[in-house]
Amino acid sequence: MTGWRFRQVGKDNWAPATVPGTVHTDLLATKQIEDPLYRDNEMKLQWIGKTDWDYETTFAVAPATLQRSHLELVFKGLDTYADVTLNDASILHTDNMFREWRVDVKPQLKVGENRLRIRFRSPLNEVAELPKRAGYELFAINDEQAMGIIGDKGPVLSPYTRKAPYHYGWDWGPRFVTSGIWQPVQLEAWDAVKITDFHVVQRQISAQAAQLQLVVEYEGAASAGGQQATLVLENLGPDGKAGQRLEQTVTLQPNRHEVTADLRINNPRLWFPAGYGPQSLYSFKAQLLQNGKPLDEAKTRTGLRSLQLRREHDAYGKSFEFVVNGIPIFAKGANWIPADIFQTRVTPARYRHLLQSAKDCNMNMVRVWGGGIYENQIFYDLCDELGLMVWQDFLFACSFYPGDEAFMSNVREELTYQVRRLRDHPSISIWVGNNENEIAWQEWGFPVKNGPHRLAVWSNYLKLYRDLIPTVLKAQDPDRPYWSSSPSADFEDIAGSQANGDMHYWQVWGGTAPISDYEKQIPRFMSEYGFQSFPDLKSVALFTKPEDWDIASPVMKEHQRSAVGNPRLKEYLLRDYKEPKNFASFLYVSQVLQAQAIKLSAEHLRRNRPRTMGSMYWQLDDCWGVASWSSIDYYGRWKALQYYAKRFYSAFLVSPHEEGDQVRFYVVSDRTSAVPASLQVRMLDFNGKVLFKQSASLQVEPLTSKVYLEISKDKLLKGQDIKKVVLACDLQANGTTLSTNTHYFALPKEMTLPKTNVSATWARTTDSTYQVTLKSTALAREVYLSLAQGDGFFGDNYFDLLPGETKVLTFKSEGATSLDELRKRLVVRSLTDAF
């Protein structure tokens, strides 16, 4: 539907609205507010979430349409408390933004113009009363994890409402509490029958055959009872060629019914996670015909693969690994949060940029965090196409939830709708009950835990995650793994156990533990860990003025989503680095620090394969334009961590590691077959003098982490000052570099890094693509390339340039730029320039 307008309730200030959209984006588009993300505007716009809003449109109904047997208004998503009228007749009241709402409106419709109005009640005002109705509050009060406090800082998250938790906050403080029509609204017409669902059940999948069951659900009108129809089922293979066609006669019945048909595909082309094979996708079509005329049709697409969450007892406890098509997959990825606080601003191009960036950096999994939203269809379509496995949380996070029948019934409808919507996506690899609720009960400061309602709250927890969700999944998607919480051992051990289940680790950053403590954690699967940094200056300049360029300024504090953020980031930085010389340098070093911290953890986790089988850092993207844990900033720029991830998540990883008096050289392989390779180890001084050199021929074993070389530190260093040397590792096969790495024996602030003069030579390869060749006479650490003016993308960045060696990389320009201009605009920064 089009032609929407909106107003603040009680005022006659109607203005054009965009649907799907939100109140905030409509206010911005009609110039009633300034950019909510600019400087401290956020604080000036809190009134929006406390206000009621009207949306309305008119649409024409033709006489022929009104003659149809059934006319339904379908609301794909209303955020959140909405009263809907059609031609002044009340037709719907909603209280869940994650449900589809359908209303039979034939009695209210008329020929000609029809007026549809939706009044959105303030979520803040609504939520304020809900704890009183429940009789007790379900909030956490643990400092930085303070989700749900009602007071001067506003409600950060409410467990009483089915609304995106991140709308209520991001660890701390008032936020943008949205309302609006965030998914499409449409009028659907049908007569005798309509197909309400079409689903492909993968009974048994192998390289030899795929045994499938096609399930068609239809709703028949009362008048259709006993009528005959023909169900036609077809499949279209990944090559676009038509496959099998099945036909069967169906005797239609009133209400909802299922019709099933078995289908075997010989020698199927299987779907694999990224890095393990192709992402083959089959399309299926179901059509109901009567006397050769179509009554209704439905389509779906899926990838054929076997999927298992393997949990077997071993020497370390109990394994936790995803097995796809018989291959144990080490999950390499990041957590995904909504890509914008105003979800409808996330374009298909932005989804593709973020998810393609994940694949380009050798990721094979993303975790859809339970504090956000069930993502839009394009997100899952792209994950299917790119081979990104999806760890899908249900949307319960960091709190406890009511257990009354009204709430449970509402959630049951939500779960059923979302599971049915998403279950044919091969990328979805696990359903997870919630984010951190179980560990919150064990470790966080919940007053209710020790109060008179303790048993009721825990009983409600079990009712939701042990009973209700598994019951829905058994009916709708029984073959996909389910996990009750993240982190959890699924009631077999304490949440976050390193012997069983998955783990979130936040003592680094969330506490004040040293970064080296990452290496003390050897979980079965690390599903969340993270470290903050700032965006670079070009991004910061988009939401600040130059007078704000100090991490202690009020504006920079507002653009921080951690209660302890800026001081803690500086504290960690000064442990390893000298004080940066200015604001821009602080931003740059903060990114290097973040990347180094996550590199240390990610390499450690990969070295411990198969004991550990997953590394999912927090987080890939950012929704605010702030200092955050993301590896890609809000404006789409890769931070140092994203470039680092491309290296530490590569299919082959060479990882030198100090262990006692030895340096052990691990090689990790995600390949399914052995690969002959050569490993070269060199110790250099900062001017390029080779102090030690050793090579080894390897047979890199498949799907393993193994020490292939071990050298004593004394032999490597030969009495050299550890503050003046770098260890360089190079893994090659058939002349192709598989992995490189560097290792330092002293902290950056203890080292005497040389002044560098990096030369750059440019060459054009296409109209918009260039090749840049870099060289330095001395070691240049953390080389960062950017343009003083304009933008583009460097194929590599934040790397160590070894003395006397060349580095060749690509640059893609965002606009037509001459070579002379690029030479003038290129800015090369290294670590020595920051102090």
UniProtKB/TrEMBL annotation:
UniProt pathway annotation: Glycan metabolism; N-glycan degradation
Gene3D superfamilies in UniProt: Galactose-binding domain-like (2.60.120.260), Glycosidases (3.20.20.80), Immunoglobulins (2.60.40.10)
Domain annotation Beta-mannosidase Ig-fold: ranges: 753-833
Protein name: Beta-mannosidase B
This protein's record includes keyword Coiled coil: no
Location of the Glycoside hydrolase family 2 immunoglobulin-like beta-sandwich domain: 193-305
Hydrolase keyword on record: yes
Lineage of producing organism: Bacteria, Pseudomonadati, Bacteroidota, Cytophagia, Cytophagales
Pfam families xref list: Glyco_hydro_2 (PF00703), Glyco_hydro_2_N2 (PF22666), Ig_mannosidase (PF17753), Mannosidase_ig (PF17786)
